[in-house]
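Journal club prep, shared notes

We agreed each person brings one worked example of a sequence with its structure written out as tokens. Mine is Superoxide dismutase. I'm keeping it raw so we can talk through how to read the token line rather than staring at a rendered picture. Sequence first:
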Amino acid sequence: MAFELPDLPYAHDALASKGMSKETLEYHHDIHHNTYVTTLNKLTEGTEWADKSLEEIVTGTYDKTAIAQSGLFNNASQHWNHAQFWEMMGPDASTMPSELEAALKESFGTIEKFKEDFSAAGAGQFGSGWAWLVKDSDGGLKITKTENGVNPLCFGQTALLGCDVWEHSYYIDFRNKRPAYLANFLDNLVNWENVASRM
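Then the structure, token by token:
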């Protein structure tokens, strides 16, 4: 089963007025994400993973004892991460659904505190990685950060919101100002309806 690069759910220039340029999406989606998909297909061809789902490959190849993950894991997980990431953003104004707002307030006290903690996780991730809002196995919400392509699937968690903090995600628009990129992501880019639908 060959994996395919999903189309963006909006035009390449649809997020430009909200802080993510057409050039960023052309590089990030069309080149970086596509490379993960192409490499993943090469690595799975003729192997035991050839007919497995993306989620099965991610969870089946993650090695919690490894200093560095395998190429198969890295490309599978980054394909999964990015497929979620595009859906978690949108060009239209997005109001946070009441059930999500209530859950965030219950877990973090205020929406502002949630945003502060999420931004701190992303800014504090040394090197490449992701910041996540997850629903844990006990049903509670928590903020995590992961290195490189590691994602919540590896820990039995449900990803509600993820922000890519690899430099290719923000350098064209924000240069080295990762905190500004994270603030803009939360304030202008997140599709809160999509986040709520994952609960």
